[in-house]
Amino acid sequence: VRSDFEPHIDTLQWLTTRIETVRAEMLHELRYGRTAESSPPPFEVKIVREGALDAAGGPIRLNLGCGHIAVAGYVNVDMRELPGVDVVAPVDGIPVESMTVEEIFSAHVLEHFPELELSRKLLPYWFSLLRPGGVFRAIVPDLASMIDQYHRGDIDFEALRVVAYGGQEYDGDFHFTAFTPDSLGALLIDTGFEGVDIVTTGRPNGDCLEF
Q: What is the distance between the alpha carbons of residues 30 and 207, in angstroms, rounded to a whole number?
């Protein structure tokens, strides 16, 4: 025997889901703004190496969030003025024109941002900087491989914890998300990138496995 309320259960479930969706959207708009073109927070950008972003000097290749690891042949960008940094700037406020960058490289940067910020703001912004045919390359922790190794006893919990949540030694050294090759590939395709290629998985890098 059907209850008098049973016909309304699907409607109530739909309304509950819709309310949660609206709530999440409102919180997102308050935190990140409506579009990828929203202005980043004020930050004093500093060109440390004169002419680093001069396109006349050759194709611009950006190494974003480089930290202490500057890469030759790239404009090394970080929020901290560390040795080897060419431009001090946030990764969402780089002083270059749209469609002028040959390549964007980021190593262990994406996991430092919430996934909604990546999908709605940061990745679309980076995509807009690349010239037609430009390339985006990224290295991220391979958390799935690390979990497998932890279960096998090949790595200890402390290594897994640090990779999962970040070293937490300074502002920005926190991890907000993790990826599998499939999830990151889907995120890039949704942004507009084409030809996603996973070069390797489970590659050791200190205590971290990466892809």
A: 37
Q: Which residues contact 57 (CB under 8 A, 6 or more apart)?
A: 51
> Which two structure tokens, joined as six digits, stand for 190?
């949704």
The lowest-confidence range among 25-34, 91-100, 106-115, 195-204 is 25-34
Phi-psi group of 161: left, alpha or beta (phi > 0 → left; psi -120 to 50 → alpha; rest → beta):
alpha
pLDDT at residue 69 tops 70: yes
Higher pLDDT among residues 29 and 210, named by residue: 210
DSSP-derived secondary structure for 153-174 = TSS-HHHHHHHHH---SSTT--
H-only helix segments in the chain: 9-32, 115-117, 123-129, 143-152, 157-165, 181-191
Closest CA to 76 of 100, 55, 102, 47: 47
pTM: 0.78
Structure tokens at 143: 């958390």
DSSP for 111-149, written as a single string = GGS-HHHIIIIIHHHHHHHEEEEEEEEEE-B-HHHHHHH
- Reply yes or no on whether the pLDDT at 34 is more than 50: no
DSSP state at residue 49: S
First-residue to last-residue Cα distance in the chain = 55
Residue 97: which pLDDT band, with cuts at 50, 70 and 90? Answer: very high
Q: How far apart are CA 73 and CA 60, in angstroms?
A: 9
